[in-house]
């Protein structure tokens, strides 16, 4: 019963994150729109490593690929690798204060963005400018918000 | 590709979900529009319709004349185009790309590489068609290039997207190219994706130097790329209709 409950919550929050991902924002804000799906996935895999595995990460990565119209498997690969790292280190990460956790998040986001940058550059070289990296910063700062909101959702 | 099609049913419903509040608000504001505004708008539209109709009369005559002239040249004439009105979904995919999502997909027969227009000019082409939505690459996307022609003198060139809103680059022009600020660029029909003769952009002011290949020539798209919600997806009839030319077959006398 409790398990099912959590499953529904995980799905709803991930769907909500995907909606946030494509939200029509004004131009400058759109540059800062972080990778909400990855943040929510990281939270759930930290909070419930026995429930969320690489399979979830891969599946939602594929869905994000289709949603964003990217090369197939681009997000799936980066999400799987990041969630794998989170699952390995989840014991240490849980002990960290939020500030240190967000440093880890910064690393994760940087990694996924580097992969993304690499794929996009393979497709059409030298067209991305510095603004491409802004979501990494905004994602790191929004980890505090995501963490508290998600904890509220989990315990509610 | 079928995997993407199947998964797109989930993601497309998300796209509609995100679009829902905005389109609902627009519909509401349309519902509560006053009688006076409606009347004024209706009158304006009627006048426009009248003007357009009279222009079309002339166009009809011109088209007939064109067909006759082409028949004289023993050329084939391309038949007109069919269009479908698609509405933009207000969602944002990637800020560094100029790709928009519309609410018509393969279920309406939309397919890849179809040209997309609005009432003022060329908007872009269908980049990826999914069952319920399709992604449209604008002509200003840095990956997009469109073969164009200067309307004044028929000079052929290619307009490449600049990556900034409302600007095209014209990088492939020779030094002595006859091009001026204010020139209208129309589709040349080369390449086969875009039908010939649609307005694309107007050439911007550029500094007059003797060497044009060094000057950076840009153009502003005619279509309202950032303001329009309704777009036209075009089907072009690629099979030319052979004309029944009155060629008199004179029998060759054999001795």
Structure report:
The complex is a heterodimer of chains A (156) and B (255). With 156 residues, chain A is mainly α. Chain A is built from seven helices and no strands. Chain A has one domain (2-155). Chain B is an alpha+beta fold and 255 residues long. In chain B, 27% of the residues lie in helices and 25% in strands. In chain B, the strands form two sheets. A six-stranded antiparallel beta barrel of chain B has the order 1-2-5-4-3-12. A six-stranded antiparallel beta barrel of chain B has the order 6-7-8-11-10-9. The longest helix of chain B has 38 residues, at 35-72. The model of chain B has no long low-confidence stretch (mean pLDDT 83).
First-to-last CA distance of chain A = 15 Å
Mean pLDDT of chain B: 83
CATH topology of one domain in chain B: Thrombin, subunit H
Shape of chain A: globular
* Domain tally of chain A: 1
Number of H- or I-type helical stretches of chain B: 2
Name of the CATH class of one domain in chain B: Mainly Beta
Q: Which structural class do you get from the secondary structure elements of chain B?
A: alpha+beta
Share of residues in strands of chain B:
15-25%
CATH architecture of one domain in chain B: Beta Barrel
Q: Quaternary arrangement of the chains shown?
A: heterodimer
Instruction: Specify which chain pair forms the largest interface.
Output: A-B, 24 and 25 residues
Secondary-structure element series of chain B: HHEEEEEEEEEEEE
Mean pLDDT of chain A: 87
């Amino acid at each position: 019963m409790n398990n099912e409950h959590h499953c529904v919550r995980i799905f709803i929050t991930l769907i909500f994150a995907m909606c946030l991902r494509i939200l029509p924002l004004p131009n400058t804000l759109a540059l800062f729109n972080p990778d909400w799906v990855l943040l929510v996935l990281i939270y759930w895999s930290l909070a419930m490593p026995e429930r969320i595995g690489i399979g979830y990460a891969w599946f939602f990565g594929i869905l994000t690929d289709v949603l964003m119209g990217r090369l197939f498997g681009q997000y799936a690969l980066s999400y799987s690798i990041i969630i794998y790292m989170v699952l390995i280190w989840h014991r240490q990460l849980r002990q960290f204060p939020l500030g240190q956790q967000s440093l880890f998040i910064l690393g994760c986001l940087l990694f996924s963005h580097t992969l993304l940058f690499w794929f996009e550059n393979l497709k059409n070289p030298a067209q991305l400018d510095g603004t491409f990296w802004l979501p990494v910063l905004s994602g790191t700062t929004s980890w505090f918000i995501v963490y508290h909101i998600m904890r509220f959702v989990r315990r509610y | 590709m079928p995997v993407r099609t199947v998964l797109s049913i989930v993601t497309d419903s998300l796209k509609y979900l995100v679009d829902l509040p905005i389109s609902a608000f627009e519909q509401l504001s349309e519902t509560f529009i006053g009688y006076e505004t409606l009347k004024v708008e209706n009158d304006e539209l009627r006048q426009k319709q009248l003007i357009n109709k009279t222009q079309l009369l002339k166009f009809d005559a011109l088209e007939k004349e064109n067909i006759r002239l082409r028949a004289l040249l023993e050329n084939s004439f391309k038949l007109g185009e069919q269009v479908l009105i698609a509405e933009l979904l207000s969602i944002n995919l990637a800020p560094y790309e100029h790709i928009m999502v519309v609410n018509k997909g393969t279920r309406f027969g939309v397919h890849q590489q179809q040209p997309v227009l609005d009432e003022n000019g060329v908007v872009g082409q269908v980049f990826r068609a999914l069952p319920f939505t399709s992604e449209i690459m604008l002509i200003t996307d840095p990956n997009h290039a469109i073969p164009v022609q200067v309307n004044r003198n028929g000079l052929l060139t290619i307009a490449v997207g600049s990556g900034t809103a409302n600007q095209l680059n014209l990088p492939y022009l020779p030094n002595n190219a006859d091009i001026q600020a204010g020139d209208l660029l129309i589709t040349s029909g080369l390449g086969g994706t875009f039908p010939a003769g649609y307005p694309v952009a107007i050439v911007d002011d550029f500094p007059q130097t003797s060497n044009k290949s060094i000057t950076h020539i840009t153009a502003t798209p005619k279509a309202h790329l950032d303001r329009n919600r309704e777009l036209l997806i075009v089907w072009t009839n690629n099979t030319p209709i052979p004309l029944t030319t009155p060629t008199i077959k004179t029998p060759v006398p054999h001795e």
